[in-house]
Amino acid sequence: MLHIEVTPTSLDRALAFMNMLLRELERLEIQTLVDRQKKCTNIIVEGKHIKLTLTEHVKRTDHEITDSEKKAQERYLSRIRIDSSSPYPRIPRHDYHPTGDFTLTAGQWPARTWRDTKRTRLEQRLGEIVAGILLLAEEIRVQDEERARKTEARRLAEEDYAFRKQRLEDERTKFQQLESQANDLERARRLRAYADAAEAAARDAGNLSKERQDWLAWARAKADWLDPLIAVSDVILDAPEPKKPGLWW
Fold this sequence. Notes:
Blueprint: E1 4-5, H1 11-27, E2 31-35, E3 40-45, E4 48-62, H2 67-80, E5 94-107, E6 111-115, H3 126-204, H4 210-226
Parallel strand pairs: 1-4
Antiparallel strand pairs: 2-3, 3-4, 4-5, 5-6
Helix pairs in contact: 3-4
């Protein structure tokens, strides 16, 4: 279905003009695609779909009520007293008058428009219209390429941002781990030094009992567990967190 919005009196001219235009475009190997579902006409220029719309300017005036409409109102007023469901006569607020002035629009964003003038009609400007459509197709191509370039540039920028952000987060995590491991090593050394000092003091005091020796072994085991350079686990500290029993067993 051709996208034509004209009054019935202008339909023949509209069809003749569109036929003339589409034949000229066909001569230039420009394909026409009529979308019956969307009720629009598209031409395909170098793979770009360009919508064509032909409209007629319609002049609007305030409606002057006619004698028959006055009588309809009077009949309504007389009936409404008896039957409140009587429909009110529909009287238009405006009248629309055909002018025969056509406007052809090609494309949407961007678009080109040609109108009838007092001196020339669209039929007389066919060459200008075809040339304008070709220029529009080139503008759309350039616009699409620029949009694609910007889209690709944005994609690359987002990828670079994501890479840099992830690299920064990874570096911070590694550094925090390094600091934590260095601190753990220092703590482990302090625990060992304390255990050695406690053992020496117990020996000097002659108080290196079995209980004291067990405590020293426990303290040194905790130092080994804390030491990041020794791969050892602790049966208690590495165990899962105990779960509190529920109200019902």
